[in-house]
């Protein structure tokens, strides 16, 4: 498997992700959007920080279950329930400072949304990995 990440000339500088991710792989792994629910199905406490940390834990468990690592992630979409840019930036910073950080060096999209699936849910991350 090979993963090539690049930022072509003519595109703006990024805060850590790459505009383009090119993959040659035998398998692709698509995770369901990972929510801030613990193993018992309870919503993580602690607002954006607590929910982001739970999402990171869930993604790491899901990746490990298929023999993947954060470095194998080729695409992420991050959903944050907030119209406030600083909230989105804070979630991005927490993700890129977590054990999952290498996953966010790839093609990534960060979105502010009106709501997510569970009452009180503030964060969700959609992940694709290549093996």
From TrEMBL:
Source domain of life: Bacteria
SUPFAM superfamilies: YjgF-like
Pfam family, one: Ribonuc_L-PSP
Protein's name according to its UniProt entry: RidA family protein
Organism: Kribbella qitaiheensis
